[in-house]
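Long-time lurker. I teach an intro course on protein structure, and each term I like to show students one example going from raw sequence to a predicted 3D structure in token notation. This year I'd like something fresh instead of my usual example. Would anyone be willing to generate the tokens for the chain below so I can use it in lecture? Attribution to the forum is fine with me.
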Amino acid sequence: MDIIERNKVFSTPWFDVVAKTLSEGNPNAPYYSLELSDYVSVVALTQQQEVLLVRQYRPTVERYTLELPSGLLEAGESPEDTAKRELVEETGYQASTVELLGCLIPDTGRLSNQLWCYFASNVTLSSPNPVLEPGIELVVCSQEDLVKYILQQQFDHALHLAPILLAMLKGRL
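-- Reply from a regular --
Happy to contribute to a lecture. Here you go:
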């Protein structure tokens, strides 16, 4: 099966809606997908082996969520640089290096982007009193508390559970 035609039917600063006509099937019933920037999430451990999370209000789900430090790649920025930048912006902690845990496809049925999953150990404060991105609260928790948050569905962001699983499978958590 091939894509024989692509048309951008709607565009925002955050995503584009693309209609794709397939070589097989009804040519009058295109398949729609969202094209958006690649995304990065960071599983970060402090020198005390604590995990850095962020709490923020998400209008889409109309509640506060617990998440990993994360964000979209900016034009011309590498996934590794995005991981380091987002970690500092959202937590005030910096990593001298980050390790790629894997690159995943967030939603094969709707989204065209990739999720770059990173691990950072021994992260340290970037300054004595870092200023965090507006609307974000830093949550520093033990690895045991992270598991509790997951099992109690207080940490329920599916795209952020995946990097945690990768970190566990690779023996980082």
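Some talking points for your students: The mean pLDDT is 95. Residues 39-169 form a domain with the Nucleoside Triphosphate Pyrophosphohydrolase fold (CATH 3.90.79.10).
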